Amino acid sequence: MEVINSLGRRKTSVARIYLKSGKGVIKINERDFEDYFPTEVLRTIVKQPLNTVNVDGNFDIKINVDGGGSTGQAEAIRLAISRALCEVDAENRGPLKKEGFLTRDPRMVERKKPGRRKARRKFQFSKR
Q1: What is the reported pTM?
Q2: CATH number given to 4-99
Q3: Most buried in the list 61, 88, 103, 113, measured by CB within 10 Å?
Q4: Sequence-separated (6 or more) residues with CB below 8 Å from residue 109
C-alpha cells in the first residue's frame, strides 16, 4: 500500500496526515502521540475513527498539525484520519459518516466588533 495523505481542519487548526500500513505508530509533529496529547480525552478523539472501523494498530500515521489549541488540533486530526480511511476502503465511509467524523465543523470564533467589549457583549449601561 502506498502512502495516503489527507487534510483536516477545525477552527484555526490544520492537520496534514500521511497514512501507510504498519504497526500502529502515531507521530505528531515528530513527537510521540502520548507526549503530544497528555489527556486521555484528546487521545480518544484522535483514535475514534480507527476504533469505529476496527483498524486500530494496522496503520502508521505521521501527522503535521499547526494552529489553534489542543482540542481544535485533535478534531482536525480526527477529520483527516477519517478522510484517509475512506480512501483506503470505500466500505469505511458508512460507519464514519454515521458517527459524524466526515463532517467539517464550520464553527469559528466570532470576531470582536468595534464599540463592544467582546464579540457580542456590550459595555454596561448606566442610566445615571
Answers
A1: 0.91
A2: 3.30.230.10
A3: 61
A4: 11, 12, 119
